Amino acid sequence: MNAEVLISELSFKAIRSSGPGGQHVNKTASKVEVSFSLENSEALSEIEKERLRTKLSTKISSEGIIVLQCGETRSQHRNKAIVIERLVELLQKTLKVAKPRKKTKPSKGAIERRLKSKKENAFKKSNRKPPKIE
């Protein structure tokens, strides 16, 4: 994934925000919406596109567009920087291939400690019972 090419492919839209700002909110468009076309992107290889399609299927529209919004701050520029950072982070995290887990067995010492604590608990509980009268 080439982040610089990816950022140049993004399209931005400014919207009126509902966040902090009082009366200022009613007259400025500080919320930023970024849309990224997965299908038309040249920053990603076909393998990466396929991986994103499967893992982000709930976030991708039917046209193959990922849309994110940010209206946290009163500044349009800061919101734009935040939303770009979020999108790049989301794509990088999704494209990262998880290492396969190696199966391991508990050590002998761990098994012995577990069995010893089980015996101690059983002994404690058996001592709580009243003695049997025959």
Automatic annotation (TrEMBL):
Keywords: Hydrolase
UniProt KW Hydrolase keyword: yes
Molecular function GO labels: peptidyl-tRNA hydrolase activity
Family: Belongs to the prokaryotic/mitochondrial release factor family.
Classification via InterPro entries: Pep_chain_release_fac_I (IPR000352), Pep_chain_release_fac_I_sf (IPR045853)
Protein name (database record): Aminoacyl-tRNA hydrolase
Gene of this entry: arfB
The keyword ATP-binding belongs to this UniProt entry's keyword annotation: no
Top-level enzyme category: hydrolase
Transmembrane segments: none
UniProt biased composition (Basic and acidic residues): 110-123
Listed Basic residues bias regions: 125-134
Region (Disordered): 98-134
Highest taxon of the lineage: Bacteria
The Prokaryotic-type class I peptide chain release factors domain, residue ranges: 16-32
Gene3D superfamilies from the UniProt entry: 3.30.160.20
EC number: 3.1.1.29
